[in-house]
Specification:
alpha/beta; 2 domains; 3-stranded antiparallel sheet; NAD+ binding; NAD-dep_sirtuin_deacylases; DHS-like NAD/FAD-binding domain-containing protein; transferase
Length: about 325
């Protein structure tokens, strides 16, 4: 299933987050063999909430899910909101920007190369597997995925049931994809490294501004085989719109009939357009289940009567709350 070559993985000392990850994996391994009719006691979910959610999930025909960075935290990927979000002192959104790419494509390519390497080395967690299983089991399931880490693709998530609204790290496209003149539609799937010049140095963390960024000539960056302009990551940069074809698929689902259940997973859902999806689902009749570290006191994420809130790491809560319908998942 996992076609990505991992032979280039570098060895490094285990950090405290590695140890936390190992402990989490051990817990998940144990959970695999538990029953599916009661919640895991360590999650502090009441039997009443577990049962009412399971019954509603079982009966739900149309389920809408919004997936955010919290889904991949247990896979070791940063949320880009915490104190570790800065890259060489820059906010991530300042590097994921078309104008910055135009001015300094070398720097932007290094930033994305490091994110690609991290995502390629990461493993999908139990929540990715559980959601893929639910999507395969329920014909009327549709997810909007804000993550670009490729982890949902690696668990064989049925692609007709998911919209990758921010693109993916594992694809590149021509920088002239939107040009008014000589527009170019080239795009291609990629793995890290995009080319040999963008291989990260071993044992040096280039996200640290004190480390010199390896020199790469602009001419050594990936260029389009069709028009010879620069290629760029196939992600939606800040300020760019989600491709229209994806927006249309989302509306086809949300306008396609009543929605029974909405799952909000690992996202505060405060940023547009993600913020719209909760009210849209409520208007279509959905009850909402939140899987987050913290309860939101801001709209649209504020709890309403009939909602569920499952507090904790999504890799634990999602797999445990779905097990009454899809059974236990591995990992
Ligand atoms: Zn091109």
């Amino acid at each position: 299933m996992d076609a990505i070559d991992r032979t280039a993985k570098t060895s490094r000392k285990p950090t405290s987050s590695d140890k936390k990850l190992d402990a989490l994996k051990a817990k998940q391994q144990k959970r695999k063999f538990r029953g599916t009719s009661t919640p895991d006691p360590s999650l502090n979910v009441s039997l009443e909430d577990f049962t009412s959610f399971t019954q509603h999930l079982q009966a739900s025909r149309r389920i809408f899910a919004l997936l955010g960075a919290g889904l991949s935290v247990a896979s070791g990927l940063a949320t880009f909101r915490g104190s570790d979000r800065l890259w060489r002192g820059h906010e991530p959104q300042d590097l994921s920007d078309a104008q910055v790419f135009f001015e300094d494509p070398v720097k932007v390519w290094w930033f994305f190369s490091q994110r690609m390497m991290g995502a390629q080395e990461a493993e999908p967690n139990a929540a990715h597997f559980a959601l893929a299983k639910l999507a395969s089991a329920k014909e009327g399931f549709f997810a909007v995925n804000q993550n670009i880490d490729g982890l949902c693709e690696r668990v064989a998530f049925p692609q007709s049931h998911i919209a990758q609204v921010h693109g993916t790290l594992f694809s590149i496209k021509c920088s002239k994809y939107q040009a008014e003149k000589d527009k170019c539609d080239y795009e291609s799937e990629v793995t890290y490294p995009v080319n040999e010049h963008l291989t990260l140095p071993q044992d040096i963390d280039i996200s640290d501004a004190k480390v010199a960024l390896p020199e790469v000539a602009r001419s050594d960056l990936p260029h389009c085989p069709k028009c010879n302009n620069l290629l760029r990551p196939n992600v939606v940069f800040f300020g760019e719109a989600t491709p229209l074809s994806l927006t249309e698929r989302i509306y086809q689902f949300t306008l396609g009939g009543p929605i029974d259940l909405m799952l909000v997973i690992g996202t505060s859902a405060v940023v547009l357009p993600a913020a719209m999806y909760i009210p849209i689902a409520r208007n279509a009749g959905a009850r909402v289940a939140f899987f987050n570290m913290e309860e939101s006191d801001e709209e649209p994420g504020r709890l309403q009567d009939g909602d569920w809130f499952f507090k904790g790491d999504a890799s634990e809560t999602v797999a445990d709350m779905l097990k009454g319908v899809i059974g236990n998942v591995g990992r």
